Amino acid sequence: MTGNGTAPTGGRAGASAPARVDWVDYAKGICIVMVVMMHSVLGVELASGKTGFMHVLVAFAKPFRMPDFFLISGLFLPLVIDRGWRLYLDRKVVHFAYFYVLWVTIQFAFKAPAFAAESSWAHAGFLYLESFIDPFGTLWFIYLLPMFFVVIKMTRNMPPLLIWCVAALLETSRVATGWTAIDEFCARFVYIYSGYVFADYVFALSDTARRYPAQALAALAVWALIEGSFVALGWGELRGVSLMLGLAGACAVITTGTLLAHARWLDFLRFCGEHSIVIYLAFFLPMAATRTLLLKSGLIQDVGTISLIVTIVGVFGALAIWRLALAAHLNFLFERPAALWIAPRKPAAALQPAE
Questions:
Q1: Secondary structure of residue 345 in the 3-state scheme
Q2: Distance of CA 31 to CAs 58, 73, 269, 270, Å?
């Protein structure tokens, strides 16, 4: 979601001539669909008080759904980590801060009446202001990314193994302060740092999967069996195990993305990956509206089916909002206005935050 899907020719992180990496878009597409699925399924089940068949998929993906997103977010940092602070902060901090401020305001515009009905408008206003200290709702990912990027740049001259071990310790410590920013930082930093420091190995994994697809499929089958067993036994949240499953699952998604790109199957996943930030920002509205409509109408009784429909509408509804915004010349919803760039920008760089 954060990368621009580009890497040097040949797929390695250390070369010079950038070219789009197809498997990155597929992997991001898988990730963003899993994120929308999780919010859709859990939202439907909470509202209905029942669970459906989609719950199994959400549980299976839980150990690696966000770790993979963060790991991919760190893959292209070696290409930009040594840039000057002004350019780096523009691309890695201001970019995401703009989208966070804009979309947290949009989300509150829809949710404030419900908050006010539960307490008061003053309290709703307090919650809005609090969202700038602690991230609100689904937007916590975008809130945390700039923090991760700054920390990685500040520590780039320190021993990578030391930083990685500290990050792994934070993940296994199960920090629970009640503040999303702190807790998620501790739980997720190891994954984005792994993407950064082990980028060459990740690209090598993809190259190997592309060369030996049959063996890669066999490895994925073994991984799925082990992953499913750990989840079914309730071991996915154990200290150390969660880190292992997160990294293994990230490698599995990357392998899957590579195989899909090699076979050129499920191209819509690639498209979703290319526009993952669009989906991430806008899916909440079609998701919530469809969930409310289906549950109140009673047209469909099966919770699993409702969850599936809500997931599909969430993904494609977000893309539809994006297309409508462009048609209505509301580009600022998904593109940072030129006036808010603090460093020179390249043409058509609007939604390419990893450049």
A1: coil
A2: 12, 12, 9, 11
Distance of CA 172 to CAs 9, 162, 190, 293, Å? 37, 15, 10, 41
| Dihedral (Cα; 168, 231, 208, 355), 10-degree rounding | -50
pTM, rounded to two decimals: 0.88
The dihedral through the CA atoms of 48, 54, 60, 63 has a sign that is negative
| pLDDT tens for each residue of the chain, 355 residues long | 433 344 332 333 333 334 568 999 999 999 999 999 999 999 999 999 999 999 999 999 999 999 999 999 999 999 999 999 999 999 999 999 999 999 999 999 998 888 888 888 998 899 999 999 999 888 999 999 999 999 999 999 999 999 999 999 999 999 999 999 999 999 999 999 999 999 999 999 999 999 999 999 999 999 999 999 999 999 999 999 999 999 999 999 999 999 999 999 999 999 999 999 999 999 999 999 999 999 999 889 999 999 999 999 999 999 999 999 999 999 999 999 988 998 776 644 444 434 4
For residue 59, the Cα-to-chain-centroid distance in whole angstroms is 17
* Residue owning tokens 């050129």: 264
Q: What's the CA dihedral at 90, 92, 97, 99 to 10 degrees?
A: 100
Q: Which two tokens mark 113?
A: 């009446």
Distance CA 146, CA 148 (A): 5
Residue spans of alpha helices (H) in 157-179: 160-173
Q: What is the DSSP letter of 231?
A: H
User: Which among 266, 264, 258 has a CA at the least distance from the CA of 217?
Assistant: 258
Query: What's the token pair of residue 180?
Result: 């999303």
- CA–CA gap between residue 350 and residue 332 (Å, rounded): 10
The C-alpha atoms of residue 190 and residue 157 are separated, in whole angstroms, by 17
3-state DSSP percent of the chain in helix, strand and coil, to 5: 75, 0, 25
Q: Is the dihedral of CA 283, 138, 197, 336 positive or negative?
A: positive
